[in-house]
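Why should sequence recovery work at all? Because a backbone constrains its sequence more than one might expect. Tight turns favour small or flexible residues, buried strands favour hydrophobic ones, and helices have their own preferences. The token representation captures these environments compactly. In the example below, the structure is given first.
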């Protein structure tokens, strides 16, 4: 299961599972990268 995402800005996001990772990635995008949105599929594609 993918639980880690490295944002292009250099921040690493960890989730307890895929749902948590997607939620945390969206929260990071909302706070740090307003206007940039990724779907669940795109987030999981970039995750490892
Ligand atoms: Zn970022």
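From this structural description, the recovered sequence reads:
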């Amino acid at each position: 299961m993918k639980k880690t995402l490295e944002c292009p800005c250099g921040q690493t996001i960890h989730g307890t599972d895929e749902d948590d990772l997607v939620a945390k990635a969206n929260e990071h995008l909302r706070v740090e990268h307003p206007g940039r949105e990724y779907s669940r599929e795109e987030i999981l594609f970039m995750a490892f």
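A few observations help interpret the result. The mean pLDDT is 96.
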